[in-house]
């Protein structure tokens, strides 16, 4: 029993990573109704930018804030330049665009900073949290920041005018235009916010998985899975989903025989899909009623 | 979080290809056929090998076109079916000494079953959820192939070496009677693959034009309406998965023979993503485009690497963007524009 | 009186299919006009063309400003509110949020709060349900909400697409009474598209009848209502 609780707790700790990424995924899904495969790469690139700034002597929090701002701007720029032209193209073509973006960002990161692993600092330190062997202060910090982000997003969407406008644009774009909302810019804003949130995720994750161009692939997949599990329309679901995915992953690795590191991913995905077969809209998602 | 459901009136995620645009015109088809028949006679063996791979990936992309373009189901998992087909052929050839040609229908049938079985639980999933499920399948496959449990058959991480077949005696004797050079292994394999490709292409076009094909497309365009009209949605969806997997399995088998080698890391998610890109570049649902898509995924990465070794991924991405900006609907769009132009010219 | 809305030779297309074949009409400021016609005649298309929601050619001028080339949201920002067919309510948001969305382009914070109160005065049932999800309201209530939301824009021109659709006759009567009040007291020019010709003609000053993308009849609403031939040929009663 003690092993079980330990693994669950450890899973929650690692799950904070996925929860953070899942928030960014849901953010962009709300804006554009698609999953952006390049989001992990954007987060990785942002993290490298912050690392570079620190190499040049900038203090941690200065680099953090500047990276946040640059990521926000970068997200908007990418959307305006690369995806606005594809707005009328079929969905699958947009997906091909995400894949292309992935290749471009990954390649550039590799060229600029090469593929050797780098250390990335954490502002929270890495001593045991409250004496526990399972959660470090950094992991506790991650959980705290993720929860804080969630609260900020909730306030943004529920209590600000622009949050209301974004919700409207995502829910019913045509009606949103009929009240004067520029839905095209709402999409750009969604991209910017998703890029910013992604950069936070990257900067929190890098101390744990170490900084290198391919660091986000596994995280992104788990992030997608967590977002889907939680219900793509629910930020709360994304966070809960992230923690659950962390727990699943850990339990699968501990209790299912023969599951080495490589099989953890497909098994975690399989568990999630099983949940989806019974609850197709995810745990917290609104059931979607389709009108013929 | 709320009591009110999201009511969605959805446009189909996969757009329809108009019926008359589904195939190339007779003239163009004959020209293509002539080119495919004659080109290998003038090029070196390595190029013939590349052309064979072109056909093989073309078959795999075609299978995906039937699944996504035909029945509207997303799949990022075709590499799994390709791998099963490849290993089936390899194992039958190397452990059971079976003739290579016989292994292909067996690979096809096994993969059909596999695809059909996968299609069943996937029935409740669609769109992004189905993509995730197929993605899981694709990432799991290389690991499953490496499992110690199967190692006796699969050769584990090392994989299996496959013997390349010679051209059959009959062909060689006919050639020597006509005082022509004996046919190389590569060339024989090319024509063998070509014959199979043509057969699959024609069968697929007929499938899409048949009642089953119409059922697929009804499901793609509006699943609820289709079931209200009496289409057995569950049957056709799983059938589409089965057919697509079966064809991909045949491609996999041919691939194993052509490359002379199967190994788990040759069938990763990267293959599945490439096939997906091939489908988009060729034009989703447009079967003739499969060959164009295949050419894209075989040759453009090489071009990208020759332009810049360090940035090959970025160059590939840029080229891909160029293609989708210019022709968001893929090669089908190019064909339509060409057809319109020709129409205008001939009218004068 | 100069015309507030001037439509000249409007042709509209859905893909390759032409839906409007050269429509021309004008709306005077302060008028209440109804656009009548059978299903598929092009009434909805006309309203959508004004808001640039459909591909069209021709000249549309609002208060002297040309509308072509503007995005839908920019047309709306000029002061044209459009209550679409099916109402376009944000069903997952509350009644009050729907009203706030109507005013989302306005910057005068205090007046918005006052306007919401005025909407509750026009439509008391909305006040009762102001924290409810809009999707849980009845058809009639959602229609009132849609009109109220449009009014939150403080529009100079309001376009309504079949507001009576799916509503019981008594509710339609009430709704039309309110529309009349808004037209007279708040000085909002109104263009109402309707299939229910009888009620619409009672409400309106001017009427146009459209058939297969062309205007076939125009004039004073009372005269058209009293003209039995016209009623029988074009309006079905």
State the main characteristics.
heterotrimer, A: 292 residues, 11 helices, 74% helix, C: 237 residues, alpha/beta, six-stranded mixed β-sheet, four-stranded antiparallel β-sheet, 10 helices, 10 strands
Please state the average pLDDT score of chain C.
Answer: 89
Give the ordered list of helices and strands of chain C: EEEHEEHEHHHHEHEHEEHH
Q: Would you report the number of β strands of chain C?
A: 10
The CATH topology of chain C is Rossmann fold
| CATH superfamily placement of chain C | P-loop containing nucleotide triphosphate hydrolases
The CA-CA distance between the termini of chain B, in Å, is 64 Å
Overview of the structural elements:
The complex is a heterotrimer of chains A (292), B (348) and C (237). Chain A is mainly α. Chain A has a domain at 20-216. Chain A has helices at residues 2-32, 39-55, 60-83, 91-113, 137-159, 161-171, 173-178, 183-209, 216-230, 235-255, 261-278, and one strand spanning 288-290. The longest helix of chain A is centred in the N-terminal third of the chain and has 31 residues, at 2-32. The mean pLDDT of chain A is 86. Chain B is globular and about 60 Å long. Chain B has a domain at 42-267. The model of chain B is unreliable at 1-9 (pLDDT under 50). Chain B has helices spanning 26-38, 45-71, 78-95, 100-119, 127-146, 151-154, 169-177, 185-209, 211-221, 223-228, 233-259, 269-282, 289-307, 312-326, 331-347, and strands at 6-8, 160-161, 261-262. Chain C has one domain (3-88, 156-235): Rossmann fold, CATH 3.40.50.300. Chain C is built from 10 helices and 10 strands. A 6-stranded mixed beta sheet of chain C has the order 6-7-8-3-9-10, sandwiched between helices. In chain C, α3 runs parallel beside α6. The longest helix of chain C has 17 residues, at 169-185. The chains are: A mainly alpha (292), B mainly alpha (348), C alpha/beta (237). Chains in contact: A-B, A-C, B-C. Chains A and B meet through α4, α9, α11 and β1 of A and β1, α5, α10, α12 and α14 of B. β1 (288-290) of chain A pairs parallel with β1 (6-8) of chain B.
């Amino acid at each position: 029993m003690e092993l079980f609780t330990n693994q669950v707790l450890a899973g929650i700790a690692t799950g904070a990573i996925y929860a953070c990424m899942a928030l960014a995924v849901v953010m962009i899904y709300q804006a554009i109704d698609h999953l952006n495969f390049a989001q992990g790469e954007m987060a990785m690139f942002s993290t490298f930018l912050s690392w570079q700034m620190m190499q040049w002597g900038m203090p941690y929090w200065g680099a953090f804030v500047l990276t946040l701002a640059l990521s926000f701007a970068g997200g908007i720029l990418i959307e305006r330049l690369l995806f606005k032209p594809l707005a009328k193209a079929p969905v699958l073509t947009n997906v091909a665009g995400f894949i292309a973006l992935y290749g471009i960002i990954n390649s550039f990161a590799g060229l600029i900073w090469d593929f050797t692993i780098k250390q990335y600092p954490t502002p929270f330190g890495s001593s045991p949290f409250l004496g526990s062997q399972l959660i470090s202060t950094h992991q506790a910090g991650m959980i705290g920041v993720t929860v804080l982000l969630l609260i900020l997003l909730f306030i943004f969407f529920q209590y600000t005018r622009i949050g209301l406008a974004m919700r409207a644009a995502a829910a019913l774009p045509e009606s949103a235009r009929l009240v004067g909302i520029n839905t095209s810019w709402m999409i750009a804003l969604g991209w910017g916010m998703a890029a910013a949130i992604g950069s936070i995720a990257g900067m929190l994750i890098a101390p744990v998985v170490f900084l290198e161009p391919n660091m986000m692939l596994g995280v992104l997949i788990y992030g997608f899975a967590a977002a889907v599990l939680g219900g793509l329309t629910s930020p709360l679901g994304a966070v809960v989903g992230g923690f659950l995915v962390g727990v699943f992953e850990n339990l699968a690795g501990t209790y299912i025989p023969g599951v080495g590191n490589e099989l953890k991913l497909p098994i975690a995905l399989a568990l999630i899909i099983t949940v989806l077969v019974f609850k197709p809209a995810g745990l917290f998602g609104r059931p979607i009623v389709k009108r013929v | 979080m709320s009591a009110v459901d999201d009511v969605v009136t959805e446009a189909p995620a996969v757009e329809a290809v108009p019926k008359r645009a589904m195939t190339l015109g007779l003239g163009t088809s004959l020209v293509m056929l002539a080119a495919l028949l004659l080109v290998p006679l003038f090029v070196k063996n390595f190029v013939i090998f590349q052309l064979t791979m072109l056909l093989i990936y073309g078959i795999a992309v075609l299978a995906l076109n039937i699944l996504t373009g035909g029945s509207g189901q997303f799949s990022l998992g075709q590499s799994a079916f390709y791998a099963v087909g490849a290993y089936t052929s390899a194992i039958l050839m190397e452990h059971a000494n079976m003739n290579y040609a016989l292994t292909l229908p067996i690979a096809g049938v096994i993969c059909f079953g596999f695809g059909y079985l996968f299609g069943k639980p996937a029935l409740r999933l669609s769109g992004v959820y189905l993509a995730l499920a197929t993605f899981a399948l694709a990432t799991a496959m290389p690991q499953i192939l490496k499992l110690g449990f199967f190692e006796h058959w699969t050769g584990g991480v090392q994989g299996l070496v496959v013997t390349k077949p010679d051209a059959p005696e009959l062909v060689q004797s006919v050639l020597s009677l006509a005082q022509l050079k004996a046919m190389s292994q590569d060339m024989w394999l090319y024509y063998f693959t070509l014959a199979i490709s043509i057969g699959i292409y024609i069968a697929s076009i007929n499938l899409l034009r048949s009642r089953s094909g119409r059922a697929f497309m009804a499901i793609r365009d509006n699943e609820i309406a289709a079931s209200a009209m009496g289409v057995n949605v569950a049957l056709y969806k799983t059938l589409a998965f089965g057919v697509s997997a079966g064809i991909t399995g045949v491609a996999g088998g041919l691939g194993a023979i052509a490359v002379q080698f199967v190994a788990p890391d040759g069938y990763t998610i990267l293959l599945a993503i490439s096939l997906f890109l091939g489908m988009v570049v060729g034009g989703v649902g447009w079967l003739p485009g499969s060959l164009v898509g295949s050419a894209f995924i075989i040759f453009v990465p090489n071009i990208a690497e020759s332009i810049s070794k360090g940035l090959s991924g970025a160059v590939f991405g840029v080229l891909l963007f160029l293609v989708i900006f210019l022709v968001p609907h893929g090669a089908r769009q190019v064909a339509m524009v060409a057809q319109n132009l020709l129409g205008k010219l001939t009218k004068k | 009186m100069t015309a507030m809305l001037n439509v000249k030779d409007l042709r509209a297309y859905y893909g390759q299919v032409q839906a409007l074949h050269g429509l021309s009409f004008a709306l005077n400021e302060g008028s209440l006009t109804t656009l009548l016609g059978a299903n598929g005649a092009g009434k909805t298309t006309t309203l959508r063309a004004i808001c640039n929601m459909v591909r069209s050619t021709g000249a549309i001028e609002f208060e002297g400003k040309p509308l072509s080339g503007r995005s839908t949201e920019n047309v709306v920002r000029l002061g044209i509110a459009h209550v679409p067919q099916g109402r376009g309510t944000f069903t997952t948001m509350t009644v009050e949020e729907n009203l706030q969305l109507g005013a989302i382009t306005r910057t005068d914070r205090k007046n918005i709060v006052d306007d919401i109160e005025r909407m509750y005065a026009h439509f008391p049932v909305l006040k009762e349900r102001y924290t409810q999800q809009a999707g849980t309201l009845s058809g009639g209530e959602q229609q009132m909400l849609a009109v109220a939301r449009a009014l939150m824009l403080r529009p100079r021109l309001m376009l309504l697409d079949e507001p009576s659709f799916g509503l019981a006759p008594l509710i339609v009567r009430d709704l039309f009474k309110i529309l009349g009040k808004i037209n007279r007291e708040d000085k909002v020019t109104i263009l109402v598209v309707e299939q229910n010709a009888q009620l619409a003609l009672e409400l309106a000053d001017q009427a146009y009848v459209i058939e297969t993308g062309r205007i076939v009849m125009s004039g004073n609403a009372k005269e058209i209502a009293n003209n039995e031939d016209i009623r029988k040929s074009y309006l079905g009663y």
